[in-house]
Design a protein that fits this description.
Elements (H helix, E strand, L loop, with lengths): L5 H4 L10 E6 L5 E7 L2 E5 L16 H11 L11 H24 L2 H21 L3 H8 L2 H18 L3 H22 L14 H16 L4 H14 L3 H12 L27
Antiparallel strand pairs: 1-2, 2-3
């Protein structure tokens, strides 16, 4: 094969309205991830750092710095992260960003969960240790996107296991955390007094919450309630009376489920992201 990238990208057109990714077999016989972008193709390792490197002999820079924290008496890095260190961490964050995009497009939810956990912990670390507030903010502003992707992955995994209550809980926690982020860091109104438009990440997690409810199979009680409403609409009062009697005889009729309360996502103090 020649050096012209068209030999690789040919037949796999870029679509600005769709994220396109695929698995391929690399020259070393192992699977690789490819992401189609406007100027060509990104190829990534599926595990460890997407570029396949091991900074300081660790699987990632995040894991290196977390190991350095653990070596300290009080679990705190000895020095702030200078501009070079932050630049390297930002590069790692972007690598994980592209792999999250690819895995999301392919429905690889466990990988999206693990990579977004890594990114969130990286954001925490860099925000805490960056030498100046401006650099810290460069990392902090990535939080809404990474939290959104993390919530999607967690909800999809839970729904795949039939646990819709857990999926709803994860989506609601993301709504609360992203709302809190924007309230803490942004004004509610523009300079001209107009209302600030809802951020895309917040719209997405709210839609996720609604999607979980839509995809949740109806219980027997809910099915009967729907049939009852339909019978009343059609003025089939005999059928409606039968359905009411059946509902009254069902244990727990009229009592809704209880969702778990929100909890704060813990820092991954023992390793480099993931669960």
């Amino acid at each position: 094969m020649g050096q012209d990238i068209q030999e690789i990208a040919g037949g796999w057109e870029y679509d600005p309205n769709e994220t396109r990714a695929r698995w391929i077999e690399g020259a070393d016989g192992r699977r690789k991830l490819q992401l189609r972008l406007d100027l060509g193709v990104f190829q990534m390792e599926p595990d460890g750092r997407p570029d396949g490197t091991r900074p300081h002999q660790y699987p990632s820079l995040l894991e290196y710095y977390l190991a350095e924290e653990r070596k300290r008496t009080h679990g705190v890095l000895a020095e702030p992260l200078d501009s070079d260190a932050c630049s390297q961490l930002q590069q790692e964050a972007m690598q994980f960003y592209y792999r999250i995009m690819a895995c999301h497009a392919l429905g690889e939810w466990v990988r999206v969960r693990d990579d977004s956990d890594h990114a969130l912990d990286l954001i925490d670390l860099a925000s805490e240790y960056a030498a100046d507030d401006e650099t810290a903010w460069h990392f902090s502003q990535m939080f809404p996107y990474m939290r959104m992707m993390n919530a999607r992955a967690l909800a999809e995994i839970a729904m795949g296991e039939g646990n819709y209550a857990e999926a709803a809980k994860q989506a609601q926690e993301a709504v609360d955390e992203i709302e809190g982020f924007y309230k803490e860091n942004y004004d509610d109104v523009n300079e001209d007094g107009s209302e600030v438009s809802t951020p895309g990440e917040l719209i997405s997690v709210r839609e996720l919450l609604a999607e979980v409810e839509k995809r949740r199979p109806m219980t027997e009680t809910e099915t009967l309630q729907r049939e009852l409403a339909r019978a009343i609409e059609l003025e089939n009062y005999e059928r409606a009376a039968q359905l009411r009697d059946k509902l009254r005889g069902m244990k727990g009729f009229g009592h809704g489920g209880v969702r778990g309360g929100a909890k704060k996502r813990p820092r991954a103090g023992g390793g480099g992201g993931g669960e």
